[in-house]
Amino acid sequence: MQKILINLSTLEKQELLSLLQSKNVLTTKEAALYLSISVPTLRKLRRNKKIASYQPSRKVFYKREDLDDWILNSKQSDESAIQSRVSGYFLNSKF
């Protein structure tokens, strides 16, 4: 699917993303495209229960709302937050 995007014009990409944003339920390929990640990465997230999915039959579906929530809740920690956690770990651990 991402190979297809390489060959699309900017206008076509915008139209495709607009179409995905108008859908409430996405297929695996559509969800990967919506998140700008590969299909194997999306499958790994699903397998590790990091992202919600629905499988009423053989085909897997994703709610766009769940994908948006995942994006908003998967922020990266800044350096000070990481240092704070590391300091807390060493203060609380017994060597």
UniProtKB/TrEMBL annotation:
<dbReference type="InterPro" id="IPR009061">
    <property type="entry name" value="DNA-bd_dom_put_sf"/>
</dbReference>
<feature type="domain" description="Helix-turn-helix">
    <location>
        <begin position="25"/>
        <end position="72"/>
    </location>
</feature>
<dbReference type="InterPro" id="IPR010093">
    <property type="entry name" value="SinI_DNA-bd"/>
</dbReference>
<dbReference type="Pfam" id="PF12728">
    <property type="entry name" value="HTH_17"/>
</dbReference>
<dbReference type="GO" id="GO:0003677">
    <property type="term" value="F:DNA binding"/>
</dbReference>
<protein>
    <recommendedName>
        <fullName>Helix-turn-helix domain-containing protein</fullName>
    </recommendedName>
</protein>
<dbReference type="InterPro" id="IPR041657">
    <property type="entry name" value="HTH_17"/>
</dbReference>
